Structures are given as structure tokens and as C-alpha cells.
Give the backbone structure.
Amino acid sequence: MTWKEKLGAQIPADLGKEIDIYETQMELRKLGKIDEKLFAETRLRRGAYGQRYDNAQRFDGFQTQHLKFPLAPLTKGPDTAWDAPGMMRIKIPFGGLNPGQLEVLADCAEEYSDGILHITTRQDFQFHFVHIEDTPNLMRRLAAVGITTREACGNSVRNVTACPLSGICRTEAFDVTPYAKALTYFLLGHPDTQDFGRKFKPAFSGCEDEACGLVNMHDFGGIAQVRDGNRGFKLYVGGGLGAVPYQAKVFGDFVPVEELLPTAQAIARVFARLGEKANRARARIKFLVDKLGIEEFKRLVAEERKILPPDPRWTQFPAVDEKPIKPASSLNGHRPEGFNAWHTTNVYQQRQAGFATVTVACPIGDITSTQARQLADLVRKYSGDSVRTSVEQNLLIRWVSQADLPALYTGLKQIGLGEHGAGTILDMTACPGTDTCKLGIASSRGLARELRSQLAGKFFTLDESVKGLRIKMSGCFNSCGQHHIADIGFYGNSRTIANRKVPHFQVLLGGKWRNNGGSYGLAIGSVPSRNVPKVVERITERFVKERHANESLQDFYARIGKAESRKMIEDLMVVPPYEKDPTFYSDWGDPREFSMGDIGMGECAGEVITALQFELGAAERMNFEAQLAHEAGNFAKADELAFGSMLQAAHGLIHEQWLDAPRDPATVVSEFKTRFLTMFQPQLAGYLFKRSESAPAPTKEATHRLIEEAQLFIEGAHTCGDKLQLQKAADRAAVLKK
Amino acid sequence: METHKFGVKLFITNPAAKPLKDFIPVFHGWIQSQALPGHLLIDVHDYSHVHHGPGILLVSHEANLSLDEAEGRRGLVYIRKQPGQLADTIAAAKAAAKKLSDEHGVQFEACKFEVFVNDRLAGISAPQVTAAAGGRVTAKPGDSRERQTFVVNRE
């Protein structure tokens, strides 16, 4: 029995079909029938990501080894070995999941990964060291419990994040969960989101002053507002971290909730049409908004909004039905050892009296499969069905009756998840860095482990002003660890000392976590990795000693100035000679002599594959399926698929000019005739017209001929498509020039 | 259903002799010399921060090996990922254990180890494990969500 057979109808039909198609595309790639770039973007949009060393090169400390993967030279993308282990990113919209989903994630991590569920800084889960051959079954098992990996990577709408306290928060305007959920499923696979030059990350917050959903650093975001009793969002666009961080611009002070989805759709269309495609470093929407100016961008979106065909989903917001399993109560009775410290940092008093939300601190976002199953049991027992992931790489258990807190704490302690310090200096955020990321320069996770270990020993002796600081680190400047919005941020870089490479971290001060990521920190100097713990000690000690009453670290930094801040760490920027201390020349948790040689080509930017290329790829897949049906003697099916492949290719061309083009055969043929008759090679166009006018009896010979004609028609569509792309680029340049 | 996704845990009897993180350079050394025949050794991963987790992980194309801390009991875990027989999986795990023992003084329990099936679609019977591993084999009790696990005792 296979997972597909076993799960059967538990897999939603649309998800099941998509996974079957993906599996066929894998087969086609193995047969060399799909280009590696197209396959790379295809798998990325299904969440299957590359991982460090998948270019089959690894520096072992002395030399670069060529890793001889068995299926070489087969690739799953440019310079990416087919059978090299990779990463699987799993979308968790607004971070919400239930115990059953947590259990399936645990099983899949155990069977296909390394038994670890890693929570990301965008509320996703990631599995590492996954073999591509296992990915279809992994997707099916997740789909059976309502989880999709679709568009978790690639140039697509990524996970829609939201404040994990939505619905129980004491300061929110209203619960943003239904809107985050509606936007997720509205944009997922939407035709208007398939032609982006880069990714697009949305986020929602319930209130403006807290950190919440970090809307300021997102491509698109909404902060809940109520005006005259009506719900709406203060809408933002064009924010983003990365190498060049941008604060989002206000798109609208109050956009009614009914306008949220159509506005997002119109923004997606403008981004797809005018966003940069060639220069990957400038293809995020923040660059487009910056180039056009927010007012012109708004004007273009308003124009697009006017011509959008109405969609009933625009106003369908799913109800949130969270019910606590226990009645409200008060915290009383025996408090186990360690409870009070945990209660101070890990427990949030909900708006609903008698209930609390517990933050389960997961060290650098990791929990084991066993812990995840045990946690699912605790959630069922004390909460019901409500778990959320957070952008601080933790898990939240909501709706805990206050009287149950001591028992829940004891349960968490028993499974190794009862650590205090959530949301404090101990609760560090780190991206995967050199552990698994192809772009990682320095070991962000190694540094986080070391810092956490050093600070944990003295946490209770730290000044209160220091306990609440946040430290975030990234392995490179791309800011996946969100170092720009930390009180103290670090990102990995490298310096050469006497012909040897030394891992360093750039130190950033001035970042603001609150106010939805209200300001971005600036670099004050780069220090060798080994000195980072001393940097933290130096900065925090000086802050405690010289801070004014109630002064934040950001204000302190602003007061003493950049030059003085740099002076504070200047002596720690010095690297001793290798002969004196070779430990400086290797990274935390990695005894190899440090090298930059393992950095590969990242896949964050995806491959630039247009919507047309996807449609033509789908046409080719259908044509291949027609061949399989023909081979199996199912000529009627072969005829249907071959004709369908021509329609698919023709629709791809029409869609380039008419975004809302219908897919029914009569319209496709008619529109194709109107629009492309003069651009398309007449003989090839004739194959489509001939078959659409009359379907021949599906004999072996007739269908064989039709399959060949369809293949030629698809070739013609490629040629025609190239001309269209040139025209589109010229149109785009003209608009931007204007 | 047939499966090759078997795992073996060989228990370490002197865990205090070597701190967990000291196995990081050991495994990196194994990669440098590609020290396990029949395995393409790829990378080392540090999970020492995770409670009762995989500890220090050595990833190869064919299998994951780890200085595992599950249930608070350190052992060498070998999990097969590519096709192979159970008997070969047990032999590969023991070969890795012998290498740790010979070169780094790690001592393993001689008469007892665990075999598990890392595949919830497949099952295996105690006699099948006996045929591959020898000794007295008993199913290890666990809840229905856990992997099917057998304890192998060889007096």
C-alpha cells in the first residue's frame, strides 16, 4: 500500500491533484523532459528548497571534497544535485495549527528528515536533509491534515503571518485571524500571483504599538483598525529586510475589510506587471514602490482595482472557532519549583478572564518529534486544539485555564520544554546560517547556542533592563534572523587576516522590535565570532551602568552616539594571529578551519520563470501524459489530453494579454485566433483549429498524429511567447520611464 | 509493505567519558576520510541544545547516524534511508559503533540493542527481526503513534 492509497479521500482533491502533477514533473525531470530551471522553480513553489552542499562541493577543513551522489549528473535545478538532501518548508498560515497536525508533522520529521521540527522566523516549519524522492508522500501526509507546502518558497506569496496572540490579545483592535486566513487561501495559487519577479510576504497585526506581526518589514501588511464601529486595516506596502531594508509605506489609513482582498489582488497585478524581473537584487516590491513613489503606486493599484472582475471570495472571512477545553479559573494552589520564573516570562494573561496563553520556548526553534507528540497531548489536555507558532521561533498554547498552569508547567518540564525566559535575552532568534543554508557565511545557530548557554547561567543576576532585551542573528546580510529589528542584532560576514578567513559578525544597534518593527538597527562594527559573547557583555554592562531612568537601549544608543558605540567594541574587533589563538579561525560548533568556499547559489530568489513558462510547462506535461495514455491503449484519453495541451498553451499566450481570460475551449480558440493569428506560424496554429472544429475518431494512428501536432503547436507557442515577453518588457520600461 | 527504513540504536555504557560536543570533530574527521565504507558522508549537525534529541548528527546519503539522547539514554542510532536489508543495517550500525569504540573509547552494551521501523506504512514481525538480528526479540511497548520498536537481547 502507498500513502496515496492509504490516505485516499482524506487528501483534498485539489491538493491531491497538485501533488500528483508535481510527482509527474519529477519523473519528467528525470527523463530530461523538463528544463532544470523550470523544475527548480516548480519544486520551490511546492516548498522543496535547496540546502548547503547540494552543489556536491564541501570544504572538509583541508580541501574541497566532491560529493559523488549516485544519480549525478542529474540535477533538480542549476548546480543542484538531484539526490542531495534538501529542505522542506511547510506553510502554517498565521502560525495556527492543531494537535493532530502537530503529530503528523512529528511523524514526517521522523521518517523523512532528522526527527527535528524547526520553527522559522515566519511561522513556518522546516525539515532538513529531506530527499526529493520522499517529498510527494510527505506532502500527501500533510495535505491529509489540511497543511500545504504550496508556494512556501519561490517567487510567490509566502506564508501569511499574524500576531500569535490574535483573538486573545488585551490591546488588539480585533482578531485578525479570519482575515489572514482568507487572504492566505485567496492568494494561494491565484493566477494573479504567478508572475512575480520575487517573493511577496504578507503580515497582519492586531495593534500598532506592540511588535505583533512586524508589519513594517513586510511586502504587504495590515494593522487592525476600527472606525465608527466598522472594521478595516491600516494597510502597508513595500517594506522588507534583506540586504537593503525598507520601512513599509502606508498605502491606506483605513481600508475596509471588504476591500482587503481586492486591494491585495490589484497590488499583486501591478507587482507582476511592473516589478523587476531581470535584476534579482531589486525585484522585491519595495523597490517598485520606491521607484514609482507611493502615490503613483496607489494610483496604478486603484486603476487595476476598478477593472477587477468581482469575486465572491472577497467578503468571505472564515469564522474562528476556538473553544477552551476547561472553564475559566484562577491560579491557586501549589506552585512547583521553577514555576514562578516561568510564569513571569512565559505566561500571558488573555483578554478573556481566567485564561492564559503559554509560550513554549523552543531553543533556536527546534523541537524533536517525540516532544511534538508529547506536546500535542498536553495541548489536548489543557487547551483543546489551539497552538500557534511565533516569529520568535516558539510555540504558543492558548486558552489554558489559569488553575491548570502549574500542571501544564510540570508537564512541559517533563518533556524538556519547561524553560523560562520566553521573550527575554535568552530567547534568541537565529536563521539556519551555515548549518544548512547555501548563503550562510557564519554560524548563526552556533553563536546562538553559545550565547544562550553563557547567558542562561547568569540570567537571574542580570539587571531587569537587560533581561528584556532581544538578540537576533543571521548567518549573512539577508536578515532571515531579523537582526535589523533586534535590540542587539548580528549578521555573519568574513574578514581575511594574514591570508586566512575569520568568521565575523557585524554588530547592529538601534533596531526596534516594538511598533511592528518600528526602526532598523545600523551596523557599528564587525567583530570576530569568538568575541561576540564579550560584545554582548560589554554593551549590556555599559547600558546598565549609564542608562537614564526608563531609557531603552535604542534611546541609550542614540544618546551616546554611533562613534562612542563603536569605541565600546573596538578592541574586540581585533583578531589575534593564528599562531596565538587558532580558535578565532573556526566558527562556533564547527571545528573546520573557516572557509567561504561552501557558499552556493541561494534559492531564496527562485528562478525567473514567467506565468507563461509555467503554462507551457503544464502543456508539455499534458502532452507527455497523452503519450502515456496512448502507450496504454487509451486513445480517447490520449486525444483529450493532446487537445488539452494545445488549449493550455494557447491559454498561456492569451493570459499574457488578458489576465481574466476564461479557459473554456471555445473562448480559448476564438481569442487565440483574434490575438495571435498573425504572430503564430500558420501551419502550427492550424493544428489547434482543425482539432477544435472536429474531433476525429480516437484511433491509434489519429491520436498519435494529434500528439505530434500538439507538440509542434506547443513549440510554436514558445516562439510566440518569446515575442510577447519582449513586448511586455518594452511596455514595462515605458511605464516606468513615464 | 516492504521497507528499508530500519533504525538501530546501540546503547553507550560510558556516556560520561566523552561530552556530547566532542563527537562533532570526530564526525568531521570521518567525513574528511570518508571513513564509513558504502556511505557518502555529507555533513555534521549539532542538536546538543535539544532535550533528548538526536544529539550530534552525521548525515550521509545512505543513512543518518547520531549520538542520540532519546529517553535520556545515549546511544549510537543508525537510520537507513536508502534500500538495504535489515541485517545489513544492523551490521553497518555495529561497524560504526566499533569504530567509535576502537578510536575513541566509546563502550557499547554488548547484549542488548533496539531495532525500529522508521516507516508507519510498513510493519515487521519479531521473527523477522530475530532472523536478521538473532537473540531474543521482544516488541517494545509504546503508544500507537510511536515507531514500531523491538528490543534485541543476546545473552
Summary: The longest helix of chain A spans residues 700-737. Residues 429 and 472 of chain A are 5 Å apart (CA to CA).
